[in-house]
Amino acid sequence: MTTPTVSDSVLTIRVPSSLKERLTNLAAASDRSVAYCARTLIEEHIADAEYAAELHAKVKAIKTGGRRAYTAEEARKEL
Q: pTM for the full model?
């Protein structure tokens, strides 16, 4: 993971107390800070969220006519 630098930004979020407790327990078990664990989890999973958002945008474009979808039969013909 990355080391904090002067250019790092601060992010404040509200989470359910049960999630905060889980994060605190994880930090204690891994001998890391809560901030480190939260940052690591975000860094490791943001790519999945970005990919899901990209897929959502593509589906929306198909539904609104901005992008064409192909049937399995049409795709097979192209192969």
A: 0.62
